[in-house]
Please model this.
Amino acid sequence: MCQNLSYFAKNWFFRVKNNLIFAGIRLMQIDQLILYPLKSARGITVTEVAVGQTGFFQDRAFAVINSKKTILTAREKPELLKIDVTLSNEILTLSAKGKKDIYLNSREAFQHTIETSLFKKAASALTTAHPINNWLTAVLNEPCQLIMVNKNNPRFSNKTVEATPITFNDSCPVHLINNASLTKASKIG
Model:
């Protein structure tokens, strides 16, 4: 499914409640779109989203690394799931219970390249010296740093037929989950 969606999702625009039709065949109806600007933090429900070669625009464009320069995910650091995120006109806002909101202009803040890893695979990113790093360190209880995707040196998915650039997603530019899977998962967990 990953390679098929990657093929026709390039430069498309998804809208909630619209049917996704390809070659005259109804493939699915989109009930909800969730954008995750910060990997493993809470998502933002949107009614429409631009889709490009790397997936939803600004989806997983940011991540948090630890002192070992490894990208943290909710698997290792479930506290990430408590961070609320908004992104408007390049301004990234992070919120967490008991903490003052912090804002960052993503266009201006990221300047230095760093090599990091996600799931033991190399990734290039841009770092910032912004106070948001201290905020994340306090929320996550360990030294952390915010990073942004390095668009000049992207990661590539090994799950697609052709080399597909991706952001900090797990494997594919767009992840689709159907309602039946969500219902089944809620009964298990």
In short: The helical segments are 2-9, 106-109, 132-140, 179-188. Confidence is low (pLDDT under 50) at residues 1-11. The two ends are 25 Å apart (CA to CA). The chain has four helices and 16 strands.
